[in-house]
Amino acid sequence: MIDKVLDRYDATALQQLFEDAGVVGALARKGFTGIEVVVESAGRALPHALLFGHKAGGRLLLLDACVGEATVQPAFFVHRGYPMERPIELAVVHWVREEDPTAAFAAERPPLPLQDHTGLGVLRLAFRVIVRIASDLGKDGVGSVPKFFHDAAIFLHSRLFLFLDGEEQGRFEALARDLRHLRLGDASLAVLSGAVRDAHGLLAKWVPGYQVLPLSPLLTAYFHSSQYVGRVDAGLSQWAFTVDADYCQTPGINAAHAGQC
């Protein structure tokens, strides 16, 4: 049996999609040769698409992505004041990592939490593949549940992913606003380590819902609706956050913005 992503895309099909999106060409310009896509299911809950390249005499894993599917029922939207007429179908990015094992981190861009290698700079191109898959399958959008604060920030700035719940989007924007004096990795680590508190002194826990890039007119209309925008504004004005002073004084933290924490 041939391993396939979403029961449709085998390694050959994905290889073509990565070529069409410009990923293979971008990697070649970085000195990688023999670009190869493998779909691996063994020992995994869902198949992973793995992209390998050769450089400096070794075969290196450059990109690892896992895509699934999800349905959001109309009740989710009705509960938030929006009359969605049918279920919303999403292609869901459960996992994506692109990295260059041959490159070192620059001093001005230290690693993000759990990041072993610097990025390749092809994430935007890789998103083209995911969007193409979602479009081919007639999905309403591409979704993700960002595991960390920095993941949500990267998804937002890479392809304008917005949280499906407008109030959650507002809370995230408030969190980003109040942590903007920290480097992204330091801000994410502050949330992860329990160093961020809301206006009531409670820990700002990271328990995200779906963050979505809309594709269909139906879902796009929801994100442009007065109901969604109103909930974003409410969340943004309702939430405020501070970082514990002890965290700010940790050696190496906030080095890019000294004195603002």
- Count of distinct structural domains: 1
Q: In percent, how helical is the residue content?
A: 25-40%
Which stretches are low in confidence, meaning pLDDT under 50 for 5 or more residues running? Answer: none
**pLDDT averaged over residues:** 90
Alpha plus pi helix count = 10
Strand order of the largest sheet: 1-2-3-4-5-8-6
Rg calculated over all Cα atoms: 20 Å
Order of helices and strands: HHEEEHEHEHEHHEEHHEH
**Which term fits the overall shape?**
flat
- Cα separation of the termini: 55 Å
Largest β-sheet summary: 7 strands, mixed
- How many strand elements? 9
- Strand portion: 15-25%
3D architecture notes:
It is built from 10 helices and 9 strands. Helices cover 36% and strands 22% of the residues. The protein starts with 10 loop residues before the first helix and ends in a 13-residue tail after the last helix. Helix 1 (11-20) packs across helix 4 (123-136). The longest helix has 14 residues, at 123-136. It has helices spanning 11-20, 23-29, 74-78, 123-136, 149-159, 166-178, 184-192, 217-223, 226-238, 245-248, and strands at 33-40, 48-55, 58-72, 88-98, 141-144, 162-163, 196-198, 211-214, 241-243. The mean pLDDT is 90. The chain has one domain. The chain has 261 residues and is an alpha+beta fold. Strands 1-2-3-4-5-8-6 form a 7-stranded mixed beta sheet. The chain has a two-stranded antiparallel sheet with strand order 7-9.
Task: Write the topology of this structure.
Layout: H1 11-20, H2 23-29, E1 33-40, E2 48-55, E3 58-72, H3 74-78, E4 88-98, H4 123-136, E5 141-144, H5 149-159, E6 162-163, H6 166-178, H7 184-192, E7 196-198, E8 211-214, H8 217-223, H9 226-238, E9 241-243, H10 245-248
Parallel strand pairs: 4-5
Antiparallel strand pairs: 1-2, 2-3, 3-4, 5-8, 6-8, 7-9
